[in-house]
Amino acid sequence: MECAGKGSRRTQCSGPPTRRCGRCGAVAYCSISHQVSHWTVHKEECERLEQQMKCADVLNEFPFAFSQEATVQVCEKQETRCSFLKKRGIHQVGLWMHECSCGAAVDSLDHSRFVIMPTVNMICELKFSILCPSSPIPKHLCSWKDYYDWRCIPLYSPVALLLHWPLTVYHAIQLAAARNLIPEFSNELRIHYLGPDKELSQLAVFGELIALFQGVQVHVELVGPAIPQYRDGEKIDLYNYAHCIETDCICKSSSENLSLHVSGKSSEVRLRLHSGYYHDRYRDIAKDSLPHLIIAPNAGIAAFMSWLRTIELIKTINIPAVFSDYCEEACHLAACCISSVTSCLGLGLNFGESLKVPFRVNDVLPALPRQISWPVLNNLHSAVDLLPSFVGSVSPTNGSIEWKGACFFDNEARLEFTGGDRGLGGGILHLKVKQHGISVFLMPSGMLGTLLSLVDVLPLFSNTVWGQNANLEFLKKHMGATFEKRSRPWRATINPDDVHSGDFLALSKIRGRWGGFETLEKWVTGAFAGHTAVCLKDEFGNLWVGESGHENGKGEEIIVVIPWDEWWELSLKDESNPQVVLLPLHPDVRAKFNSTAAWEYARSMAGKPYGYHNMIFSWIDTIADNYPPPLDAHLVISVMSMWTRVQPAYAANMWNEALNKRLGTEDLDLYGILAETERQGITFDQLLTIPEQDDWVYSDGKSTTCVAFILAMYKEAGILGPYANSIQVTEFTIRDAYMLKIFEENITRLPSWCNNEIDQLPFCQILGEYKMELPEYNTLEPYANMNEYCPTLPPTYERPVHC
Prior knowledge:
Domain MYND-type: 3-46
Radius of gyration: 31 Å
Mean pLDDT: 78
Protein name: MYND-type domain-containing protein
Number of helices: 27
GO molecular function: zinc ion binding
CATH class of the domain at 472-616 and 700-767: Alpha Beta
CATH superfamily of the domain at 472-616 and 700-767: endopeptidase domain like (from Nostoc punctiforme)
Low-confidence stretches: 104-130, 244-266, 345-355, 358-387
InterPro entries: Mss51-like_C, Znf_MYND
CATH topology of the domain at 472-616 and 700-767: endopeptidase fold (from Nostoc punctiforme)
Number of strands: 19
Largest sheet: 6 strands, mixed
Keywords: Metal-binding, Zinc, Zinc-finger
Structural class: alpha+beta
Shape: globular
Strand order of the largest sheet: 5-6-4-3-7-8
CATH architecture of the domain at 472-616 and 700-767: Alpha-Beta Complex
């Protein structure tokens, strides 16, 4: 636990947070001074937290024989989730694989392995029995003990960990029925289940609904962004609840009763998967299945802005909904969010035992979706650290105030009023800063809007389905991309004989670290691809790939020439889910391609670092027309200044050397560069627009980005013809490159394996589930000094002729 007053005063914490609030006991402080300063914040929540703390013991009480081991001992670090499972022989076994932090990621699952066998060896792998129900289901199952007794499960069995999903559905139905929110049902029950994630690897446990709703046809529509696109529309029919499949087990169940998709037999429980947000998919789903009830277990409403549109939809369609969350405070925050949209709390806060996971939250976190668990587990800082801290108010009567910041230090401010006619006067605010001056920025959307924008951007870098969907939505919204799904197969069977030296490879990565980086790069440059490579054939006809930006064993981004098979295998294994297209050169252009010169250039560059020196300067050509709002040159210099303090070596590599080249100076740091810029009578935004020169040699050699490497090779190979000496290829973005009119324009000459008959693209897409879009592909004839002063403003990215 951190000091709750951390950041509320300028003084640092004096020690560990050993002083708890005497009233609620929910927060702790390092000192009396921090407790006093934080009271203005804490007093708004203290009474609520006090009531929650009174219920803490009740919420952590379970009837299971393993309760102490799974809760108290885990909390006190005497036990871990993994050790708990290992003692029972179920660690990383079957569905239990996802019940600890070291289990396989949901995204990497072979889902069919678990869906086709609905029993998932729940008993065989557990050594515990689930018997057939001993009697018809009671009118209400009010607790885990009621459920275990009815299902004849011993209290030492941890199967509750797997069955809490269907029990949550059951309990939600009971809550809604008790309040007359849903009509009576006898033959059919339709449920819309929102936001599934880990459930996708445990779908078989929903067969338990057959026992809970005997004689009822249960239809569950699972809707959420974590469902992969390739599973959209998938149907899973479950014909029996979870049994043991060991023939000598006491429950005497037979494996024949546990199959899926039995021909000619109507299902007891039908699951159907829908990829995307509920507010986007509802209209299509409701055509076939208007729900009795909407259920969103462990929703995290307060954490995700996307819930707001869903809540607005639910209010509009007037269908009852039940939301649950992992703790009481999360439920309170969720209720506030729902109330702000609907002006009512629906079912309100209700804590039934059937909804509880029999582990404490801090031990459950590793098994939760990463977008929830990682920020908590990493425990970097609280969200409050994103907000500005109050230093003090400035007035003529209180003298001056002083503060120390991350970028500027020994700062001082004072206010002096000046007299004026008719009693009206003004004032002068004096700011004293020890180093480098002050930049003043307005947050046009306010602090809240800025934070919401951060929420939109941060998911881009998540290596999850959630992160991929965030990238797709960002590019659709800000660039007008469509991401139309391709017909299968998504992977081409390539014949290397049809690929030639100089053929261009364009890649679009849409998830993870590189997916997020490329999304922002695409947005600022207008390119619909984020990485490139080039094909080369040697004298023996072997196919190779030249690439700037290949990660070596040391984690360095370098230039390489590697065999095609090796490059292709890496692409297939790439977790960033690359979409890859091959852009063959036009036959007339290919005839001019000097393969010997191209190979000489490639070998001369092999092993050199990626062209970070000129990466940002290929994008910035103009003073104001290359920055998507709210970016501008002033923000660029501020980011450079902050980064210089945090990572001076990184800053030197990214821009210091390049800026020195533009000024004709050497070894100046950023602040020396700013002074020299002023001395030479130019502004910093003008300095950024000075074109990069291909013959500039940096401390680590010539610098080429992925696309500059290819175009420099084209120069050497004679493709750019008479303009070779008047074109600076280090000024090209990826968009500039694929716009060049040098590629095949007759789709009938493309290889037969290139595209399927339905897609009909003007180039060869060889990998990816979405059609690659390359607007203005193959339209621009080369000309002298091209791309040195071109604007790139979204969403159209229009450019004048011969810019």
